[in-house]
Please model this.
Amino acid sequence: MAVGSKKKIRTPLKEHLRQMRYQLIPVLVFLGGIYVTGLLWSKHMELPNGIGAVKALRVDIISPVDGVLVQLPDLRKQLDMFDSVSAGQVVCKLDDSTVLATIATLEAQGKELNMQLAATDAEMKLEFAAKRADRSDRRQSLLDEARRLAVDLEELKLDVADRTIKLESNRVALKRRAEKLAILQDLVKKKLETEYALKDTQLQHDVQEVEIAEQEKALAEARTLETKAQARMDEFDKMVREEDALSAAQGATDSLAASIQKEIDVFLKPIEAAVATQKSRLQEALLLLKALEIRVPPSVISSGTIVEIYRMPGQAVRAGEPIMRIANLDSMYIVSYVRQPHRVSLKVDSTVGVQVRTIPIRAAETEIAKIGPQIESIPSRQLRDPKVPEWGLPVKINVPRSLNLTPGELVNIKYKAAP
Model:
């Protein structure tokens, strides 16, 4: 080793680590902070200039008539808050005892009308026989034929009405048996009812189905007979009018058709009116029976969730009173208000920004659906200061599907500035 040479002393490893801690780590932390700041800024939109409230289409289920609510027949489908429902689903049912009593009354009245028609026919025969000497043979034969055709037609009308009432009554009974069958099936699965009771109800249900099919066939045949009887009556009227036309050509002034019709109407018009009234009352009862099962209106809502229940089974409701409220979560929208001082660009289909108020912050762009026609008072939830009232122009905004918003949630809105 040369004289005067110096040996270099190595820096200890601990010193290297200490220098790295004081020099390199702060630089890395600074660069990491810049990266995180840029990442957050890329997900952050401009400062909002509006507040929006997420809303959903809500439909009130209204009672169409006065009545008392009853339990739905299927025990597995008793509805409660926040249950999902679909279009056309039965959500409420009113007691149908009064309607069934009306149908039973109409059935009894049909039997009474049949007996009244038989008595009227006998009275007509006696009346026409007493006046036979005062009439020509031709006039008497036409009057007897008109009486026979008119009575046959009314008998067939009454038969059709009677069969229709019985058929509808059996259809109601079949529906009740089907409801009872569904309940028993559920109870048997839970071992709360015997298999014998289920089989007995099933047998009664099947027998009634066969009876209804036979009644439908018999009703169709009865309607065919009624149509043929009406055709015979029309043909007879046509023949009498033709004879009147020939008589008028020969100088006769009396109308045979009018006089015959007048004599027949004296006896049969009351029965005709009673049959027509019976048919109208039956249609009214059937419409009322259908209205007692309250369904989700398919023309308004396809599916939804029960958010309010105002009346429970056993409670009475008046026509027009709400029973429950259903919200359609597939038809959500945002309502915001553009305050007067703000100068923003408002056009239908123009783009706006929507930002949630929860962590992590998420934002998306959507379009304006509709713009209100006038300035309105802003709801308290959307005020910047609840103590200071504000007014603004309402704007309906489409909901961005990517944000998964919830009805009632408040969101920030960013409108584009006016040019």
